[in-house]
Specification:
The chain is mainly beta. The protein has four helices and 23 strands. The strands form seven sheets. It has a five-stranded mixed beta sheet with strand order 10-15-16-13-14. The protein has a five-stranded antiparallel beta sheet with strand order 17-18-19-22-23, with no helix packed on it. The protein has a four-stranded antiparallel beta sheet with strand order 3-2-5-6, with no helix packed on it.
């Protein structure tokens, strides 16, 4: 019995020695043959991992017998799995394929289309679909996605939009005070902060630019700016309908139709409506306050005679008629 245990123990030790003495050596390259230093090599199913050296080579002890898989990954390349069928003395070559699905975020914060990484300005970019998925149909909802943005509003005449705590004052009425945060839609300046309460229509992306922007955007941008870009009309006939429901009888409907009118001329019509009952109930009048009743319309003509010249004619109107902005008395105390 002791002899059998001794033989079994020696086999286990020899097997462990075999595993330890058979590291996998290799080199990581791209499709162009250039080595990729810093690539991560992981033995799949374990926590054994190494990083490729400066010349792209690596050596990893799998601590197991083939066959098994190793996963190689690096930024800008697709993670790939490679099967190891046997140990060999010569280094194995592992080729990674570039990930062509990486999206480039193009912004217009400097009055021209640029890749976001090339712009030396602190910018937060939110795509239109991401804003829709979060239910951010106006700036008041958008502030929940950008921590440095604050929006205070007791009524349409008393609205202030701040970035990093800087902007305009918040008092009884500030409709005659210039804002400190610029609000731009397709390059058009909206002078009054109350415009931030209107519903978004066909948003492509929203750029929240932090810091003084007087050189690029002019006055009233001492704290930053909102640069909103809407989707352009297309020659291909398209239509979109969206409807959302919620508590307090919340109902929101959006629709847009786009298509070509002539060669190089496209048009688009968009509608939006939002309705919600108020959250404050007046027992004397038997009605609710602080609700929403918004209606918006937007029309666009897009003329593209060449790649160098593009003309966009846009007009929109938004009507808000809420039973809103009540003042509630919390209680009465003696003086």
């Amino acid at each position: 019995m002791k002899k059998r245990l001794l033989i079994l123990f020696s086999l286990i030790l020899s097997a462990g020695a075999v595993f330890a003495q058979n590291p996998i050596k290799g080199i990581v390259k791209g499709a162009n043959g250039v080595t990729i230093p810093g690539a991560t090599v992981i033995v799949r199913g374990t926590n054994i991992a190494v990083v490729a050296y400066v010349n792209g080579t690596f050596a990893v002890d799998a601590k197991q017998q083939p066959p098994f898989y190793i996963r190689v990954s690096y930024v800008g390349y697709k993670p790939q799995d490679f099967q190891v069928l046997k140990f060999q003395d010569t280094p194995i070559e592992l080729t990674l394929v570039e990930d062509t699905q990486l999206d480039e975020i193009v912004v217009t914060s400097r009055r021209r289309s640029e890749v976001l990484q090339d712009v030396p300005i602190p910018i937060t970019v939110i795509g239109g679909q991401a804003a829709e998925n979060a239910g951010a149909f106006n700036v008041n909802r958008l502030k929940e996605l950008v921590p440095s943005v604050q929006l205070y509003a007791s009524n349409a005449r008393n609205t202030t939009l701040n970035i990093r705590g800087l902007g305009s004052t918040f008092g009884l009425t500030n409709d005659g005070i210039d804002p400190g945060v610029g609000f731009y839609v397709d390059g058009v300046y909206h002078a009054r902060p109350a415009a931030t309460s209107t519903d978004f229509l066909d948003i492509e992306q929203i750029e929240v630019i932090r810091g003084p922007q007087g050189t690029l955007f002019g006055k009233n941008t001492t704290a930053g700016a909102f640069n909103i870009t809407t989707t352009k009309p297309t020659q291909t006939p398209t239509a979109k309908v969206e409807m959302s429901v919620g508590n307090y009888n919340f109902l929101q409907a959006k629709a847009s139709v786009s298509g070509g009118l002539a060669k190089n001329l496209a048009a688009k019509i968009s509608l939006s409506g939002t309705q919600r009952d108020g959250t404050i109930y007046n027992t004397r009048e038997e009605r609710r306050y602080s609700g929403q009743n918004n209606l918006g319309f937007k029309g666009q003509l897009y003329y593209t005679p060449s790649d160098r010249l593009k003309i966009l004619l846009s007009g929109d109107v938004s009507v808000q008629h809420p039973a809103g902005y009540p003042l509630v008395i919390a209680g009465v105390t003696q003086t």
